[in-house]
Amino acid sequence: MIIKIKEVATDKDLKAFVHFPNVLYKDNPYYVPQIESMDRDTLTPAKNHAFEVCEGKYWLAYNEKDEIVGRVAGIVNRRYNEKTGENTGRFGWIDFIDDRNVSKALMDTVEHYAKEKGMDKLCGPMGFLEFDPAGVLVEGFDKLPTAYGKYNAPYYEDHLTALGYAKDVDFVEYLIKVPEVIPERYARMAELVSVKNSLHEAPIHNRAELKPYLDGVFCCLNSAYSELHGFSELTPGQCEDLKKQFVTNINVDYVSIVLDADEQVVGFGVALPSLSKAMQKAKGSLFPTGWYHMLKALRQNDTIDLLLIAIDEKYKNKGVNAMIFHKFAQGITKNGIKYIESTRELEDNTSVQNLWRYLEHNLTKRARTYYKPINNLY
Hints:
Blueprint: E1 4-7, H1 11-24, H2 36-42, E2 54-62, E3 68-77, H3 78-84, E4 88-96, H4 100-116, E5 121-124, E6 136-139, H5 155-162, E7 166-177, H6 184-197, E8 200-201, H7 214-224, H8 236-246, E9 255-259, E10 265-273, H9 276-282, H10 290-299, E11 303-311, H11 320-335, E12 339-342, E13 345-346, H12 350-353, E14 361-373
Parallel strand pairs: 4-5, 11-12
Antiparallel strand pairs: 1-2, 2-3, 3-4, 5-14, 6-14, 7-12, 7-13, 7-14, 8-9, 9-10, 10-11
Helix pairs in contact: 6-11, 9-10
């Protein structure tokens, strides 16, 4: 098969780039289409403050019939490289048919791009920020992803390893079954941690009451995630983007903001009702009926997705997680939630995983990022 690689240069190209996986996986019962307009905004410099510290290019692969058979993005996160002192390029938004010629053509292209930018190695799949989808699914192909995960066919791993890519890190996801009665030990532990460290929950009853704490939340996030793999400190503009993305969908029953005696944010957690099935029904678009399915899922659901937990460095390993989960437990009980899905977290993140040790839980999905030295290539 002769493969032609074309750089995304027009709005029409970008629409095709975003739409391709919805064609590739249109008959797959486990694929969750992303909302295409939101994906386009993420990839558009004028609409994404990540481009304050990042740059990128996107490419489509075409076959002899001029049909799209693959896509990939090349990214350089300058702030992350400055923090680590490394020259690391990223590849992301990668999808392709099961043909080695296609995957090789795509990766050759992004490797050339990274090399031209002075990068010494290439890692991925990763996005601009930690909050973009990352990793190739390597376990859990018969499970529905969360709305913040990403589905891919099993052959992706074989293609990447054949091209010389080795494991970088693994992300895991757990399905936690909520018991009819949540163990009392969580409430006791939360109370003990609260009293011992002079901490308390922010009194939040509606979304408007979140606003005074949001700057503190992002300050805490930047501090807690500073050493996390792939994370670079969020700029004020990036924080504004995340507020727009998440706050409108938040149910305050699944928000915990922990304050110290001076009313400073020292930890927080956010979960959302599962949107996976609603996004399948939306088929990549909020209109004409996608918004209805999303709204219904936010209001009526038996599953929540755990999005973020962050704790200030001074309070790590002091049990603040217990306070956060206790707040979630109240919303879980109130709304009849039966399952909790953890979104992708690093496999060695035991501080979060220990939250589930007294509940029935199973590792359901694993995703992997890869790396390859490129300083001696080409």
